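[audit] Reproducing an earlier prediction to check determinism. Same input, same settings, fresh worker. If the tokens differ from the archived copy the diff job will pick it up downstream; this log only records the rerun itself.
[audit] input (329 residues):
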Amino acid sequence: MPCRTPSRPSPCASKVLFAGLALLGAALFWAPPDGAAAASIKSLEALGFRPLFTEPSSRVKVEVRRTARPENALPDGQPALAAGGGWGRIAEAWLIDPTERYDHGVLGDAVEAGGLLLRLTDGSERRLLLPEDQVFEDLTPRLADLDRDGEPEVLLVRSSLDHGAVLTAYGLVGEDLKLIAEGPQNLTAHRWLNPIGAADFDGDGQIEVAYVETPHIGGILRIVSLQGDKLVEEASWAGFSNHLIGTRELGLSAILDFDEDGLPEIFLPSARRRSLRVMRYQDGELKLLGRSFYDAQIIGDFRLEDLDGNGMDEVIFQLDDGLEVRLYR
């Protein structure tokens, strides 16, 4: 039935208004580049990739290392293991002290971590417990030497019962495990962010950290770096998602120097996870280098693996139609 123009908004008019707002929101949420910038955005094939759509791999390359799980480890958490058995003084980092004091459940259950445990190369341990109004809303610590002093920091998502999630860096200060820095506190309670990883993206000698803020509701890619006791934002770009709400797979992204120019790029799904975008951070700006579109949604952790033995890693991920995408180089 056609919509009429009543004196008060009818359900039909409300639907039209809602649809219009949704379209406006989408336009504000993702505005494609104009002119020459749009013309410079290439397909992944034009960037040198050879995509293959196939059945998921039955064999997955994993690192297996003998380690003892702490008694109070987060049940579904996994440790960060330093390469070679130690990075600086840190050998392992674990999330510990499971708690249900934060009722969000974005990672599939109500159990989050209330603390962090470091195992050092000398066999000793360091522990840090959060206040009762905070949790680590995360599953796996990430090691990154943000200040390049040879001792890594531990990157984690910390959430507050009142203020939502914030990216944090913990590390050894003398003999103690302490908070080193934290990022912008943009979020309210029950709002979350998901880290991508750390690298010197722009070649300036400083390590940057990339993450997606609110990946389920208009995800914003943010680039931050350590400045004093803060992780300070350097650039941002809206329109991304690297997590499917309610799942424990946090790795829907990859960092890879695909053109081998010394500057790693970020491979990241769009907000609807129906396209893959290749982003570069350079000269203080994020740039969209290339993208590819799919009929199904991107799901599951990304993998980097040299499947064809040519010395270059492929980017591998799955779609929800059951196919696996392999981007050969």
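[audit] rerun output stored. Observation attached for the diff report: Helices lie at 11-29, 35-39.
[audit] end
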